[in-house]
Each structure stands twice: as C-alpha cells, then as structure tokens.
Amino acid sequence: MSDALSAIPAAVHRNLSDKLYEKRKNAALDLENAVKALITSGDHDKISKVINLLIKDFAKSPQANHRKGGLIGLAAVTVGLSSEAAQYLEQIVPPVIRAFFDQDSRVRYYACEALYNIAKVVRGEFIFFFNDIFDALCKLSADSDANVQSAAHLLDRLVKDIVTESDQFSIEEFIPLLKERMNVLNPYVRQFLVGWITVLDSVPDIDMLGFLPDFLDGLFNMLSDSSHEIRQQADSALSEFLQEIKNSPSVDYGRMAEILVQRASSPDEFTRLTAITWINEFVKLGGDQLVRYYADILGAILPCISDKEEKIRVVARETNEELRSIHVEPSDGFDVGAILSVARRQLSSDHEATRIEALNWISTLLNKHRTEVLCFLNDIFDTLLKALSDSSDDVVLLVLEVHAGVAKDPQYFRQLIVFLVHNFRADNSLLERRGAIIVRRLCVLLDAERVYRELSTILEGEDNLDFASTMVQALMYFEAFSVHALNLILLTSPELAKLRNLLKGSLVSREGKELFVALYASWCHSPMAIISLCLLAQAYQHASVVIQSLVEEDINVKFLVQLDKLIRLLETPIFTYLRLQLLEPGRYTWLLKTLYGLLMLLPQQSAAFKILRTRLKTVPTYSFSGGGQISRASSGVPFSQYIHHREDGGAEDNNINNSHQGINFAARLQQFENVQNQHRGQTRNKVNYSYNTSSSSASKEVRRSEEQQQQQHHKPPPSSTSLSVADNNRPPSISSRKAPGQLQL
Predict the structure, then answer these.
(1) Rounded distance, CA 310 to CA 242, Å?
(2) Mean pLDDT rounded to a whole number for the chain
(3) Which residues are in the Vacuolar protein 14 C-terminal Fig4-binding domain (predicted)?
(4) Global pTM value
(5) How far does Cα 101 stand from its chain's mean position?
C-alpha cells in the first residue's frame, strides 16, 4: 500500500475526495499521468496496487465524495493504461458496476460517466462484462433521477455500438437474462428491452429469430401497454420478426404456437388481433410442425370468430377455413379426440357463430375420419343432444346434420331416436319449440319412413301414456302448443311427400300396408291421430268405426282442439284427393260417413263445424262415374242409403272383420281400444286422486267448523250422516258406449 501511496502524490490523494468536481477532475488528470509513467517504466505491480487503493479507500468508502473520487480515479487509470487496460478490467469494472446501485444519485451518475470512459478505451474487451452491464443499465433506465437516466442512455448507445461491431458477443448467454427481464412492467425498462431486441436482430451474425420463443410472450405483453410509444415499438419489432419467419426455411413454430394460443384470448383487442394474425401465418407456413398443436390453435380460433372486433373475426374465419382444409391423418400425429374435445367445449359458447363453426368441425371430422370420431362418440353425444335445445335454428339444423351423419350406421340410428324421445319426454318445451324442426330435418337427412317407423316402435312401448299421446299427436300435426305455430309434419311437410304417397296406397300395396301397420301401433295413443292416419291411407271404413268407438270421456277440450285442426287441414291441398272423391258419394260411402261422424262431434257454433258442413253441402246428389255416366244418388234420405251401399273401385270391404290386403282392421280396432282403455283408466285414477284429496280437505274443514259451533252453543255434535255431504257431490261415472249406428242420420 505504501508503494501505491508513493505513486500517488498526497495532493492527488486528497483532491480525489474533495467535494468540488473540478478538484476531483484535476486529481484524476494527475492520476492518469502517474499511471502512464508507471506503464512506461513497466511497473505493473504498482499499477495493480494503485487500483486496489482506489477501490478500498475510495470506491468502497462510506463517504459519497470518496466514492465519486474513486469512480473518476478508476476511469483515469483506464485512460492512462490505454492499450494495456484489458488486463486490469477484472479489477476496474466490478466496483464501477456496483456503484450503479448506490443510494446517492450523483454516485450513480458518475458511475455511468466512469464506465462510459472505460468502454471507450477498451471497446471489444468490454463484452466480457456485458450481462452485468446490461442488467445494471436495465435498472438505471428506470432511475428516478433524470440526470442518471440521461447518463445511462448515453452509455447504452455506446454499449450497443460496441456489441454490434464485436465478434465475441454470446447471444446464448444473453437470452436467459433478456427472458427474465421481459416480464418487467416499467415503461422505461420496456423501451430499453425493445430497443436492445431491435438492435440485436439487426446484426447479421446474431440469430435472434432462433431465440424468439424465449422472449415472444414478453413482446406480446407489451402490446397492451398504456404507452402508445411502447405498443408501437413492440408491434414494429413483432412485424419485423414475422417477416423474417416468412423468409426463413427453419422456424420453431411449435413453441411459439403455444404462446400465440394464450395471447389470442387476451382481453386487449390489439393483442388478440396480432396473435390471430400470427396464427393465420403459422397455419399457412407451419405444415407438419403444427399438427400436434391443431387442437390448441382451434381452441384459440373459434372464440375469435365471434369477436366484437370485425378485423379479428375476418382473420379468425380465414384461419379456420385454412386449418380445416389441411389434409392430415391420425398417423401423422393428428389428434381427432383433442379436436372433438375443443369443438365440444365451444358448443357451450354464448356466441352463435362459434357454436356453428364448432359443429362444422365435428361434421368435417365425421366425413374425413369417421372411424376415429365414432370411437369418441360417447364423449360428445350428450353435448350434441343438449345442442338440440339451442336458441338458434341454424345451430339446431347443423346438430341434426351431425346426428344424421352418425346415424347412418344402424346401431347409432336407434340410439339417436331413443335419445330424442327421452329428451322430448324429459323436456316438454323441447318438443314444443324444436320438435317440428328436428323431425322434419331428420326425415330429409335420413329416410323419412325409417325415422317414423323407429319413432312408432319406441312409442308403442312407452309407459308414460300422456307423453305418448302428446308425442303421437305432435308427430301427426306438429302444430304448436304455443302461439307461434310450427309447420305441419306428416300431413303437410314437403319433406314427407314420399311417405304420404306410400300411406295413400296402404290398401293396395305391400309397402304402404307395412308402414300403416307400423305407425298404427303408436298412433293408437291419440284418437285424432288414428283418424288422420286413416284418412291419409284412405281407410275410411276403419276411420268411421274408430269414431263410433269413442266414448264420452274421449270428447274433451283437447280432442276438440285437435279435431278443429284436422277439419281445417282437410281444406288444404294435401287432401285434394279426398275432396275429389266426394264427387262419387256412391263409391265412397264410408268417407261420407266418417266426415258426418266428425261433424256430429263438433259444437254447432264452432268455426270448424261450419267449414265441414259447408263442404258436405257441396257433395252432389249425382255420382260421376269413371265412364262419364251420371247416375242419380237417391234423394230424400241419401245417407241412409249410402251406408248400405256396397263400395267398389278397390275401396274397403263392408265387413270390417275381414282383412284387406293383409291389414286386419278388426285386430287394429282391438289394439286401439286397448290403448284407449289404458288412457281412460289413467284419467279416472287422476280424477279420483284429485277428488279424494279435495274431499278429505273439505271434510276436515266441515268437522272443524262443527266443533267450533259446538263449543260456542254447547250443542251435542251432529250425527255422522251429516258429514256425508261430500259423498253426494261425487260426479257420476261415465263409461257408457255408443251403439254402432248412433251417428247415422
């Protein structure tokens, strides 16, 4: 230490710690000259001792002025050493860097100044300490003192110049530090970081693109910064990297895809737009590298399709179409189950557009990878069924297409119909709101006859009789139970024209007969449905017999409402053939009897009664035969003659106990009556239960009133016969049956 003191004059030693800058500056110049003299004499040992003296007595001193003197002294030594300075940098630089974190702002300022002067001397040799210097500058860029910030910026520019011209810079050692700092929120630090990323990316020998996944998330995070300048700088850097990706033959798409997927759901609009734009380019460029990330990418795209920002929606739709058009196989790593899982989750989205695209994906996968989709069917089937209750008609139609695609296999067809009936039973509103559109669409996508046969088979064994009746009537008419009328199905829907034509030939063709019998079993749950089915199948005699079999319990408000609908339906084009048959009353006697039977069931003041009566008044008294001959139908009491007239022209046989083309109408009638008796028994049980409940309540109320009166008037309790008033109010049992000819005129 004495050698060091001898090399430094006492005045220099004293002035280095002076409070006046000029004195410290002059002392530093003297120190510089002293070091040059030592270099000339080759006394490197004494130079090292001088440096240690400056560190120990000055740089580490608790006195701020001493620390300032130490910093300026170390810089002066470096200048004096000149080309020899490199070998002493490990002694000189660390104490200067430590001074960056000094509590005194002036010390931090002089630390920047000292390191700046040191860097100017050593240039490239400076790179050895780059990470430490970068870390210090990163913190100083957000310094509370403006002068320190200014000094740090000046030093920063010099360091950037040194790095760009150096061939010793190690990007591999620097990236971990950069990645760590990218999460800092301070705007000054963010500007500092983006500046360094941009500078390093501009150096041809530094491959920043290869390390982009390490700091990409940090750049995206800056896109939502409150500072417009920072957002602009981050966007500019990202745009430059994206352009490099387009031009680069080798890019790590996978790691970056994970980041982009997360950023695509950012609450910040600009971040979402940038992320979805990057994903769009990745899908176009990534190829096989992105196959295992397709599910994650789809999970990011689908919500963006319904984004409130139009630009995001446009890019998301384009990306979605691009992704769906890529041809990949499970053998290539394409995970069908993962894609289905994403689509299933998105079916719960609040946005219709997203739900529609999710269904389009399921449909696409079903067409391209049917075997794999069916393996995961149990995972998505319940969700698809719930989607039938969706508020959007477009969604429901697409769900039905998916269901129809699955149901092409016989094993899944019955499963679908069973689940539909189950859902209709569990959710009556689904039957009311969606029943028509579901059945009609399935009849288009699948075979209508097959659909109706399966529905009939299931309903035939239905234990819930009320539901079976409602379901059958719905299948027959599908007119709304709400104020918004749905379209008719079996009797009016264009989709079921082939099915209706088949039923019209029930008495003459084997296929029609089989369909009639198949539907009849479940149609028995609704008298009006059976009558409608018979009119459609031209089984007029059986329709008349069914009408005759009805009892008082069957003629209720619900029945009359359904009858009103049928009468109005008879005036539509679908029943034109039936109205034309009225031109031959002698041939179609049972048709007349059926229509008159319906007329007798209607209240005379109802609109339906007037409609049907008006139609029957137009029936001619002359029968127009096929050969152009006109024969007079009997006047006076024409209907009594019609019903005894044997039908011809292929109509039904008058003897209902005989079979016609294989249809045993007597057995069908017995089947109908058995089912209706079950309904009547259930109705009586409900009435009795309701009566017993109300009667019990009334008896308790009477007993309570009598007891109160007895207590007030001290009278003896009334006899038990006085409590039998309720029994006298029991409605009479109605089970009488009409005679076969009761409806004849």
Answers:
(1) 22
(2) 83
(3) 429-619
(4) 0.71
(5) 53
